[in-house]
Design brief:
The chain starts with a strand and ends with a strand. About 0% of the residues lie in helices and about 40% in strands. By secondary structure, it is mainly β.
Length: about 30
């Protein structure tokens, strides 16, 4: 399972982490 993080979006300190699952990509 591969995971990667996205940089904060326009002034947001929140980061989105995505993990690729065997069936479908999962957004945490």
């Amino acid at each position: 399972m591969e995971c990667f993080t996205l940089v904060p979006i326009q002034g947001s300190s929140l980061q989105a982490a995505y993990c690729k699952l065997p069936e479908q990509p999962l957004k945490i």
